[in-house]
Design goal:
The protein is of the alpha/beta class. The chain has 2 domains: about 210 residues, Rossmann fold (3-Layer(aba) Sandwich), CATH 3.40.50; about 80 residues, Helicase, Ruva Protein, domain 3 (Orthogonal Bundle), CATH 1.10.8.1080. The protein is about 50% helix and about 10% strand. The chain has a 5-stranded parallel beta sheet with strand order 2-1-3-4-5, with helices on both faces. Helix 11 packs parallel to helix 13. The longest helix has 20 residues. The protein starts with about 20 loop residues before the first helix and ends with a helix.
Amino acid sequence: MDLEKLITEGRNPETMEIDKLNTLDMLKKINDEDKKVPLAVEKVISDIAKAVDSIVERMKRGGRLIYVGAGTSGRLGILDASECPPTYGTDPNLVVGIIAGGDKAIRNAVEGAEDNSNAGMQDLININLTYNDSVVGIAASGRTPYVIGALEYAKSIGAFTIGLSCNPDTRISNIADVMITPVVGPEVIMGSTRMKAGTAQKLVLNMISTCTMIKMGKVYSNLMVDVQASNEKLIERTKRIVKLATGEDDEIIERTLQKTHFNVKLAILMIVTGLDEDKAKKLLEESGGYIVKAIENYNDNR
């Protein structure tokens, strides 16, 4: 597809004179365009759901979630992946972000990196991609060679492939098992896809990782019960989470968290059931790490 035919590369008729506006009106124009993004994402929620269900199915078989992109798209994948370990207590290798040009490209543009389709394939080979893994190819244009190479290789070995683009009927859509296409329209500044397209990609990636972690038992109610207490703020958050989940006395919460080395999930289960640490840990393991299921099993066997 020619560049000029891409929606994301179009010229926005609403912002043709943005350079003549005062600061307030300039910002209002940007804000008006940003309002269109969640509505575009809303239209593709069923596709996001298909992607999540397949990712979870494979993750339960030992698979990983891999984000692949170039430029802004690659950086957004890395951002989402890097937040999973502290938020959900995941192994850093469970959700992985890969960017064309390697780590240097996170901060600096690497010329020509996105045009190398073989590099997309090689970067997946380098992490020993398997058929149990899920690969999300992120490209606003839907035609980035690096992402196409990665998706084609992933598909060739039986991995689950997902495309995320802001243009319909692209090269990526002919490869991916599931295609997610929030069409946000032309950018405020022509071709600046770090704006609306980037925002849409961020929203979709948030949805994918969050729903995946919920379905993997990392959330109880709406509480992040696998959070890693790696700093003072997160230590306080663990106490608040256990408090909200159990309503228990602060002293008991503190003592239980200390005993479990700030394992929030285990602390909640111990307080709710009254079990000691070993029995609660065994019950949690038998319940696949799901607190709700563990409590149900405990009540069923009383």
